[in-house]
Amino acid sequence: MSTELPLSGIRVLDLTGVWAGSFSTAILADLGAEVLKHENRYIWQPATRAGIARPPREMTQEGNGWLNGYPNNEPGPRPWNYNPMFISFFRNKRAFTADIRRPEGLEILGKLAEICDVAVENSVPGTMEKLGITWEWLKEKNPQMIFLRASGYGLTGKYRETRTFGAHIEGTMGHALLRSYRDESPDTNSSVFAADYIAGTQMAFAIMAALWKRKTSGTGQLIELALSENAVPMFAQAYMNFALNKKEEKRIGNRSIYEEEAPSGIYPCKPVGDGSGHSGGDRWIAISITTDKEWENLKAFMGEPDWMQSEAFKSGEGRAAQHDLLDKQIAEWTVHHDDIELFHKLQKSGIPASPILDGSRITNDPHVLDRDLYQEQELEDPIGVFRYPRPLYLLPASEEKGIRLAPRAMGQDNEYVYRELLNITDEEYLALEQAGHIANEFDESLP
Fold it and tell me: Is 279's pLDDT higher than 60?
């Protein structure tokens, strides 16, 4: 017997942007909530639908594919509808437009607030206030409203008005100092946005907790979530190690935070093609020895070479003291092996290992295919059928699982929102179109 999705019947007013907010509402939508994603044709939200609205073709032929790559290697007439880095966040949602900077646009938003359960925003403090969207305004529209505000550094404090992305959060909170190699400066790090994704999950969790609370209290609430504070658990062990042991953790590259778990690292495998990183020919494997038994297994698998027979290597502490030597010797051995073949053989021998797959290899990985981690979808724009990431979890009891609505084009659900939810007339709809509230393209003034 099929059951409804957990958040069926919940409606969310999505005023978010970038990754943290967009990911949070994607989770809510995946769980069955009807998410109404608002956009304004005159405002470009950075890193929400794409880097820029209308990239020249030359830009799409170079640089990182995850940022500048487009289907069929063409930006197309409406590139914001299918940028590979962002569009997956628009699955299972409803997309509508309105210029909420103007009185009639704010009135539209207010009418939607009356029929929504949740509102979510993650702009810098002051942005919503300038638009007239406050907790008090929302409560007046809907006393049971749950309003989550997720800014970089919170609604109070010296940094409250600081504009930030996940990468900046990780720098401010210290993660970037721990996420580098021992012999390199933190400024050599590539950008990582884990703080955004962690914030997205916690935003969704906080909203679900508030919905649960509302069942008994009957009232809504204001939720404040600071991405910076939320990012602390990513490296809680470093804080605890200093607080309890007065030990300041350092950059350790790919080694384990538990020193006795050695050797642990990323090792080169047999390359393909010319073997250059630029051509994608380099191959790597992660190997982590966590127990003495696993070390013995590795010794046996490698054929009991003389260099592994030292008495010092029989304990994790002894191996950790010679970690550089072990890394060198293991790398000289792994470089002669295919990464996938070596991964399977090591696993069968009781040795934790995994190949390091780049994006081009992940989608064809046998386990990924068996788990149906990507679903074929056809977007509103005629660009063809492509595979998109499905929700993070399976809900077998419900027939409505996976991607129920393909990633939405800008304004794709204007008809639904305005005609079905707000019940406006044809004349009103036409007037709003002519005024620029209802649209399916960004204004020409946006690059």
Answer: no
